Amino acid sequence: MTDARWTAVDAYFSDRLVPEDEALQAALRVSREAGLPPINVAPNQGKLLHLIAQIQGARRILEVGTLGGYSTIWLGRALPDDGHLVSLEADPRHADVARGNLAHAGLAGRTEVRLGPALDTLAALVEEGAEPFDLVFIDADKPNNPHYLEWALKLTRRGSVIIGDNVVRGGAVVDGDAADPTVRGVRDFLELMGRNPRLSATAVQTVGAKGYDGFSLARVIA
User: Fold this and answer.
1) Is 3-220 CATH 3.40.50.150?
2) Is the distance from CB of 96 to CB of 125 less than 8 angstroms?
3) Is the pTM above the cut of 0.90?
4) What are the distances in angstroms from CA 205 to CA 21, 33, 84, 114, 180?
């Protein structure tokens, strides 16, 4: 199996199960034209996030890492009319692009992009006494993943779902001696998740248009 084959299979799935509409296609195009890195989730992965949010019955969603808002659109569309999504983005240019893409998708009224380092904006949400989130999607700088998980646990309740993206690191996650801070961050994140009695969690390897990767899925049980 090759990356080309994986990509072809993803395209096959997406062509039949994930018809992208104009707003999603525009979000990718505008992000590309603005020079944002092409690290958004694939269409079938976006649809998976959408379905998980719907299955969860999420009314409040927290996203750590907005980029151009592509995954934000998928998640935002899973919300009920009175739902709300808060997405955290450290880069001003990314945040501007995302806000435009969300407005174009008709989601400006139920989504909010907060600018600033996520550790600061997460702390601000706790200080504000934010209502617990039903779903948290963590897809930002990996060295801070353990800290993002700690804050996510303060901002969720029993029954909430926490998803972590890009946890395989091309297989390097198994290397306990890795010097790469992204690998160390993901390892610490997974180990913290596994030790925490408030969480029931798993992780899955994937292959596809985004290469060899994977995600973690956890439910707050206490």
Assistant:
1) yes
2) no
3) yes
4) 28, 31, 30, 30, 20
Which tokens go with 103? Answer: 């407005």
- In this predicted structure, the answer to whether residue 1 has a pLDDT above a threshold of 80 is no
Q: What six digits make up the tokens of 137?
A: 């999607």
Structure tokens at 171: 């297989």
Domain boundaries, the chain: 3-220
Q: What is the pLDDT of residues 145-166, one digit of tens each?
A: 999 999 999 999 999 999 999 9
